[in-house]
Known about the structure:
The chain is α+β, with helices and mostly antiparallel strands.
Amino acid sequence: MMEREQRYIQDPLFWRAGAIAATIFMSMVLAALTIDTLRQITPGSPRVPAYDVINNSVAYQYDPARAEYAPKIGGEELIFGHKYSPKEAADLIGKGKLVIQSRACIDCHTFFGNGGYYAPDLTRAWMDPVWSIYAGPKRADKLAAFMMHPLRLGARAMPDLHIQRDEAEAAVAYLKWMSSVDSNGFPDRFGAASGQ
């Protein structure tokens, strides 16, 4: 019996069949996980609002049911005095993403945990306390002005990246949309008052 089992497991066909079965099974698991992930991260899904969310107020509040902070989408709060249609919002946010990529912002800043740690995390830049003195449209204008002509706000100065007004508006729209994405409480305790 032992000799027969040993011959069986030494047979290359046994291992080949096992490898093929494992590969097929894991490919099916990977496909299912990919489909589920794409469903979760597509704009317009429950955790990733559609691009025209930039027409609404975006805040960050503690959700006791989840025991974490989460974005809270409120009523209408236009930026730059314009209500963007879904297509206009998608185009503007696409342009904003390209501005951020072309200026290599990720070399210094962090987005959803990825990037550099030299400068502030921009995952929730729209709601950053430094801008809290400005409400609604003024916040968008102040962020755009800062991008065009950076001021020293902390220990490290942001370089002048020669961003034009239309580019700054697009980048601000992208940052506002990004702040509306439910990232499961990341960054941790962003909305918490100090000492909590």
